[in-house]
Specification:
The protein has 530 residues and is of the alpha+beta class. 32% of the residues lie in helices and 22% in strands.
Amino acid sequence: MTDHHATSAHSTALSAARRDRELAALRERTDPVDLVVIGGGITGVGIALDAASRGLDTVLLEAHDLAFGTSRWSSKLAHGGLRYLASGNVGIARRSALERGILLERTAPHLVRPLAQVVPVHRGTGVLNTILPGLGFVAGTALSRLAGTDSATLPGARLLSASKVAEYVPGVRRDGLRFGHLNWDGQLVDDSRLVVGVARTAAGHGARILTRARVTEASGTQVTVRDESGGGEGGGDGEEFTLTARQVVNATGVWAGETAPGVRVRPSRGTHLVVRADALGNPTGALTVPVPGETNRFCFCLPAQSGRVYVGLTDVDAPGPVPDVPHATEEEIDFLLDVVGRALESPLTRDDVLGTFAGLRPLVDAGDGDTADLSREHALLTADDGLITITGGKLTEYRLMAEQAVDLVVERTGLAAGSCHTADLPLIGAPGHPETSTSPAGYLPAALVERFGLESAAVVAASVLDRPLEPVAEGLDVTRAEFSHAVTHEGALSVDDVLDRRSRVGLVPTDRAAAEPAAREAIAAGQAPA
C-alpha cells in the first residue's frame, strides 16, 4: 500500500500506509517508548497531543477507530457547566467554563461555535421553571466572564419576547407563550470531528496514532498489541507483539475496567433522536425544555448540520456488559418525544424520527444512587502494577484531563518534558496552525468550511476523487472531497469509518445507504497503490 500524500515524521496526515509503517517499526522496537495511551476517544487523543507537544515519544493504541465509543455519541455541546453550578459543584462549573472558552476562542474556533439556548415560558408553567432558568443563565453569564470568555463570543443571558422565541425556534408552541430565557453556550460542529482534529494535531507533533490495534494485556510499563486491521475492511491478521513504555495510561472510558480490572465504572446511557430540521421550522437556537418534575434537568432540540436536529437526552443507568455500540430503547424514544412535545406547536411523532444514537457516559462508580445525580468528576487512578487509568469527566474538560494525566506521568517517571501549552495550541484547521491557510477559498461550500475551517481549500485540492465538490449523494451537504480526505488524511480504514465517524451521514440509515457507493469509491482510491 502506497501513501498518496507523503508524510514526514510530523505530518498531520493519517493514512493506512502511515499506520502500517509505524506499526511495523514498533514491532521491531526493543527500547521503551516514553508513553503508551490506550483508547482513541477524546480523552486518549487529548493525552497524546499533550504528551507529544511536550516532547514525549508517544504511541496511541485504539482497538477500533478514532471516536468509536462515547466520544461520537454526545450532545455535541461544549457545556459551560450550568447544571453543575445549579447542583453546587462550583469546581466542575468553573473548569467547564474555562475549557469552553479555550475551545471557542483559541484552540478550535472552527469546530466549536456559540449556540443560543432558549427556554420558552408558557402560561401554566410552574413558578420554579419560570424563574430558575433565568437565574441559572445569569449565573452562567457571570461564570463565563470570570472564565475570561469575551462577551462578543458568548453574549450575556437575557429575556426574550414571545416573538423572539419564535424567531430562534419557529416550531415552538405559540398558544400561551409568554416569553423566553436566552443563554449562550458552546456547540461542537461534531464531536467525532473534534477527536479526529486532536488526533491529527498530535500526529503533527510526532505521536503515533494507531487504530485497529487492540491492547489485549496491559501493565504500567508494557502492553500486548494485536493488529486487527485486516487490510482496512474488517477482520484482522491477529498478529501480536509486545511494546514497552516508561508509562502506560488507560484512557478507555466506559471500558476502563476491562483493561484495569480494579477500576469500577458505572455507565449511564444518554440517548438522542435525529429528526429533520424543517419539522421544527429550521431552528437557529436550541429549544430547551424542563423535564416534568425535575428542577435541574432539561431536554434539548439542537440544530445540527445536514438539515437535522438532535433531540436529547436521557440519563439512564446501564448496568451489565458494555456493548461496543449502545442502542436507544423504545421507552427512551417515547420519553424524549413526550418531553419536547410539550413545547412544540406540532409535537414530534415516531414518523419524524430519522434515526437514533445512544452513548454511555463513564461515571466513576461511587455506589448507589440515580446516575443523573452522580458526579461528572474525572478520576486518575494508579494500580499496583503502575498502570494509570483516567476515566469519568466531561468532553468539554478533555484538555484539562489530559494535562493532569501527563503531569502525573512526568511525576512518576521523571521523564524530561516541557510544560503543558495545549491551552494555546491551535488544532489543525484553526487560525494559527502551521498547516492552515489564512482564509478559506470563497468558492467552497459553507458546510465544508464549517467542518474544516482554514484547511478547507487543502481538503478539496488533495482529493483523489474526481468531481470533489459534488455531494456524496443527492440532498446531502457532504462532498466527495471530504470522503477522500477521510481516507488520505484522517486515518479512515473502512466504509464504516467514513460514514459513521469522519462524517455523520450514517446517523440516518437512508442517507447512509445513498452515500455508501461514494465511501467505497474513496476507500478504493485512497488506499490503491500509486
